Amino acid sequence: MQLLDNLDNVISLLKESLATPLPGPKAQELMAPSFRNEYKSDKNLLTQSGVLLLLYNKNEIPHFVLMKRSSKLRTHSGQIGLPGGKTEQSDTSYYHTAIRETYEELGISHNFITLLGKLTPLYIPISNFMVHPFIAYATETLHFVANDDEVDEILEIPLRHLLSEKSVTEDIWEKSGKEYRRPFFAVGEHKVWGATAMILSEFRELLFRK
């Protein structure tokens, strides 16, 4: 996987992989918590959203960015996620949602971002969100500025860490007197689980095709 230590190589690989059928739900489900399907869903009342998996160089090493959502937020507060959020009427596309939210949350303008492609949309039963994930990259040096109302912490993750088998683990989640399996990516002291882990799982499969 040494070729993935170079951002240009990562971009080339992803362009090839995204030109073929996506890994899809099968790859997403590898990181799905076992209680995921116990929630009742109403897909007639979906909230659409867009998120961005943004690749960039830091100290000449490919990284991507996650954030710890503010405890002030009504949905998914305190969780680790990709930049992004709910689609607004003024958004011209789900990608527009993703880059607008990335600017609002992390201060990164769309002028620095180039779209690579889209991953498989993911439904979140607990909040009734349909998430549209996009992969993009920036060749400029990025300087993140967190929106304190939405972001508690910015996490800059080396891409190689995501690809390491040591980053993939699980624990037991106790809920309503029951125990459930909860897979997650270990990032320092943080556990990246749920929808974000499922999206990253599909992205990971794209990179493992080579």
From TrEMBL:
Transmembrane segments: none
Coiled coil: none
GO-annotated molecular function: coenzyme A diphosphatase activity; metal ion binding
CDD domains referenced in this protein's UniProt entry, alphabetically: NUDIX_CoAse_Nudt7
Cofactor(s) it depends on: Mn(2+); Mg(2+)
Pfam families: NUDIX
Entry keywords, A to Z: Hydrolase, Magnesium, Manganese, Metal-binding
Nudix hydrolase domain location: 46-185
Keyword check for Manganese: yes
Database matches in InterPro entries: CoAse (IPR045121), NUDIX_hydrolase-like_dom_sf (IPR015797), NUDIX_hydrolase_dom (IPR000086)
Classification via PANTHER family: MITOCHONDRIAL COENZYME A DIPHOSPHATASE NUDT8, NUDIX HYDROLASE
Protein name: NUDIX domain-containing protein
Species of the source: Balneicella halophila
Lineage: Bacteria, Pseudomonadati, Bacteroidota, Bacteroidia, Bacteroidales
